[in-house]
Design a protein that fits this description.
The complex is a heterodimer of chains A (348) and B (343).
Chain A (H helix, E strand, L loop, with lengths): L1 H9 L8 H11 L7 E5 L5 E5 L6 E7 L4 E7 L5 E6 L11 E4 L4 E5 L8 H5 L8 E3 L5 H5 L7 E4 L4 E3 L3 E4 L2 H18 L7 E7 L9 H8 L3 E9 L19 E3 L10 H14 L3 E3 L8 H6 L6 E9 L7 E4 H16 L8
Parallel strand pairs in A: 3-12, 3-13, 13-16, 14-15
Antiparallel strand pairs in A: 1-2, 2-12, 4-5, 4-9, 6-7, 6-9, 7-8, 10-11, 11-17, 14-16
Helix pairs in contact in A: 1-5, 5-9
Chain B lengths: L1 H11 L12 H8 L5 E4 L5 E5 L7 E8 L4 E8 L3 E7 L11 E5 L3 E6 L22 E2 L4 H7 L5 E4 L4 E2 L4 E4 L2 H16 L7 E8 L8 H9 L3 E9 L18 E5 L4 H13 L5 E5 L7 H4 L7 E9 L7 E4 H15 L7
Parallel strand pairs in B: 3-12, 3-13, 13-16, 14-15
Antiparallel strand pairs in B: 1-2, 2-12, 4-5, 4-9, 5-8, 6-7, 6-9, 7-8, 10-11, 11-17, 14-16
Helix pairs in contact in B: 1-4, 4-8
Classes of the chains: A alpha+beta (348), B alpha+beta (343).
Amino acid sequence: MKELLKKLSEAFGPSGYEDGVRTIIKEYIGNDLPQSCELMEDRAGNLYFHCKNEDKPRLMINAHMDEVGFMVTGITDTGYLKFGCVGGMNPIVLGAKRVVSERGIKGVTVAKPIHLLTPEEKEKAPTVDGMCIDIGAASKEDAEKYTDIGDYFVFDSGYVEYGDGFIKCKALDDRHGCAIMCKLIDAIKAGACTDFDLWFAFTCKEEISYSSARCASEFIKPDYALVIESKAVQDTYGVEDERKVAILGDGAIISFMDNSTVYDRGVVDHLISICNENSIPYQLNKYISGGNDSSAIQKSIYGVRVGLISAPSRYIHSQANVVKYSDVEAMYEIAQRLITGPNSIVKE
Amino acid sequence: MEFIKDALNRLCSMMTVSGYEKKSKNDISDLASPIFDEISEDSFGNITLVKRSCKANAKRLMIDAHFDTVGMMVTDIHEGGFLSVINIGGLDTRILPSAEVSIYGKERIYGIVSSVPPHLKKDKKSSVPKIEELYIDTGYSKEKLEELVRIGDPVVIEGGYTELLNGFVAAKYLDDKACLCGALDAVRRMDKERLNYDIYVTVSAQEETGKCGASLCAYSIKPDFAIITDVNFGAVDKDNEYETVKCGEGAAVDVSALADRKLTRGVIKYLKEKNVSHQRICEPSYTYTNNDLVSVTGLGIKTLLLSVPLRSMHTPVETLCLKDIKSLADIIIELAYTDLEAL
């Protein structure tokens, strides 16, 4: 799965321009599908893989394809690009970073150098307004040959394995979810049996809160949904235990609640029992924070019973997003047992 | 330009955090030995490269470029594989969160400077983190890390060599390897027959931590003239134009109370006459370069300060135009052929 994870994470795919990621997934899944399976897209940009099992409870597995990025909002007379963020970012991680545009133009983010700051300015954190992208253009006219207002940029930051089983790349949020879904589809194609009418939805625009997962849910009308995500944690040195959220390496996070969703207790209990029965490492989030596609799905159609498994992730929404591979493997295990297990998820 | 590109790329990949320059002395020798007649080093970590003229008892022209860089040093090893660090030289902590680093312990180890995502920020206001509040994430256990890293090991902020448009390059630590690259290119292109001086290129240590290396070199060389080369602030968008120089418009002659007045004015006049393109910038008192200490070394040394415009100084994406390095080399060659006393 690592090779696929690298390819997906390094692909260009900010919210609203997920085409590159979608293409990789489509190519990976291929055209040689079993009779009962189908690959399709909708107008919202979602990509679906359907494993037909009529009259069975409908289960939707979901991961989003988009990543945080930047959009050019203006070009200065001297050829620098002003930009806005696509998705939420802490401006403190934006200084002096390499970025690359949808046209492959490379640039670096610049703020006023520290030597030229007044003492008051030195105390202040950089703001997006005070920054621009330097592409080496000689003037506005020169810059306009290579870029335009509305062009997307993303972090130019590759895949690195480090320490004891850690992975760093831009956009691991949520390409690891896409990679897990691709591997689950591999298992279905190889003959794994499911007792669900099973759908996989690769969705768009999660990072800007108006997620196309809502459209996916309207289209599929699932009974149950499992969202596979990244969860921002802060398990670094010096952080109070109760604020760490979860620990990298302690297994997949099963959430009972976050800032946008109270998860279906029946689904949560089912996920926990899968872990207990199969000795899969998991943890519960110890701090309420963040949100994801679950919210849009849960509150669509007549209401959907939704559950979440997520990879504890450090430095999310920066160039150096980090996950531990063993947690990603645990998530695959949970999802795989769910789709091949009994379809009576909630015992009334 | 091919030489400049290749040499600059090689120089930027060398680990030369202030105080740890000796780790890369062999790499410097490999790069310089085809160009120079003599190479020597001193106890402080300075390397002196000599190119002889054809004149007997020639006067000595020193050309200085420091090769140390800002960086960090490990100060503590914590549970969970996190390191505390302190800065070496003037580091801009605003650019540290989420930066990637290399720790030079028993082996080179990859690390990431910790940062807080928007989801978990305590308050809406963002402040500049102090270096004591940042930790380097290595992904190892404390026990494993203690085998690999010791307190005092140097840490480098990583960044590749990225080519931008119009011959611009973004890389880590072009300060001051850009000028060293220019000095090497100049000497490589010098016609020995026309040299008016024996040329002493000093690859000096610890400029970023007290500007000491070059002064030690000057003391032992006792040059008749010294050209100090360093980077200067390249204007970004509408930065104060009187405090900055423009990337792509050539190297600059710096006018300062601490550079020799007669030599500086003479050189500006001479370059104009010869139609050698250059910019000028004024730093009324301190220049914050090796110039300041070298000028008062021994019985005093006549110094000239030349600079290459650099944007995003002291970050892993320092950005310059390769043309400006060639411009620096062109100026140095012109001056090495001239009787500087007569200007």
